[in-house]
Amino acid sequence: MTRSRTLLILTLLTITLAVILWMLSPPHPEQARLGYSSSTFALQMVRDWPTLTIVLATPARAGYRLHTLVDFGFIALYGALWIGMTWRFALRRWFRWIVVALFALAMLCDMLENFAILRVLAIERGFTDEMARAIRGWALDKWLLLGFGWFGLAIALLTHRLWALAMGYIFAFGIVVMAWFTVPAMLQLIAPALLVALLVQAVYFARQPA
Asked: What digits encode the pLDDT tens for the residues 5-19?
């Protein structure tokens, strides 16, 4: 199997599991008041124990657990995809290793975020600010590392004149930077931006010779 076919399969699997995760996000009556369209994203962005209590004060705790467990598979998929793309398109070895390291560290932060979420899901009450800060801290670190990884990947794509793909990842990086310095809820805009980029790259890889 060629590298393009492998990357096509990883792209399609990443899109599929992203949609599944969106569908698994349990409904929450307070998520709109908290400023998020997704209850699982609201859980990522908890600031303190009262907010954590509100987010988890729902009969959908089992839904959070299932979503988090499936997310471990998503981490493996997107890591394989973006590391594979970096290895395919980055021309200089030192630059390739930097971008790969960014994605690998983002995956680690994502897994630590999931473990922090599973920790709070294992108890019924007694949440602390430290628990909330652990979830939010790992989540924000994950997004920042992913953002810089996408920027590095975009540079690699530009060397091959893949303008549309590169612009998609640069746009996602821009959202991360703006959210980091202004309102973290803006990170929710990454989902549609990345979906478009992933669909474009699926078409690109599908058109490559077998």
From this structure: 999 999 999 999 999
